[in-house]
Write a structure and sequence with these properties.
Oligomer: single chain
CATH class of the largest domain: Alpha Beta
Number of strands: 10
Largest sheet: 5 strands, parallel
Mean pLDDT: 94
Strand order of the largest sheet: 1-5-4-2-3
Strand content: 5-15%
Helix content: 25-40%
Shape: globular
Structural class: alpha/beta
Number of domains: 2
CATH architecture of the largest domain: 3-Layer(aba) Sandwich
Distance between the termini: 61 Å
Radius of gyration: 19 Å
CATH topology of the largest domain: Oxidized Rhodanese, domain 1
Length: 281
Amino acid sequence: MTDTPTLFSTLIQAAQLEALYHAESDLAIFDCRAKLGAPEWGPQAFDKGHLPAAQFLDLDQDLADPPGAQGRHPLPDIARWHAHVRTLGVTNETQVIVYDDAQGAFAARAWWMFRWLGHEAVAVLDGGMLAWSGQLSKDLVAPYPSDFERHPPLTRSIDTIALQETLEQPDQPSHHLIDARTQVRFAGLEEPIDPVAGHIPGALCLPFQDNLNSTGRWLAAPTLAARFNHLDDPVICYCGSGVTACHNILALKIAGRAEPILYPESWSGWITDPDRMITTQ
């Protein structure tokens, strides 16, 4: 009789990942490093050294469609994403690990997207590359394509039309909508990326960076629960382009909350129509 493998579905510690390596588990590791405005940076960083057996997931090529009316990082077509996951060799039994060097800002997007395909066994490496004390590798993985089957999403999402209808309901509490950007961007005091500053009316500012402690590790579940305990379900999460919003979704899941809703278009998609209301208050 064999032990049932441990399922990692939110976070994994570096020591736990190392144990999976030694156990020769069915494992797929993905490097999600990226730098906004520098699409070549992530692949170059990967080539210089990555976790052993890791493959690279490109924020702009794999985890998003080209920018447009749906924002800077619209979700790719789910059928295309499903087909790509098959080329990466992921099976329905694979434990997927995602990491970056940006405190989970990009890895959380990949985490959400695997869950979008109904795959629960996906976790973010707590602390990212800085938490990994083992050797790095420059070797490239050549995976065998898999027959990964798509299952009902474990995620929830909302488009702009549905969000507008939700916000126009007079009995809908405004604090259901949370913005993962910094306070200065939320307040419209500074906007280094998008052409319009401010936020969606009725939103609350809960920056994703506050899900972490001073060392860049995720806060404990009770602490995260306290951070969000003033929010009633369902919670809708957005950010600049639907990427770091996933960080707040992961934090809410760690806290034991019901599945939050992602607004993938986020601020950069919201502002493509000048008739949509914005505020800086």
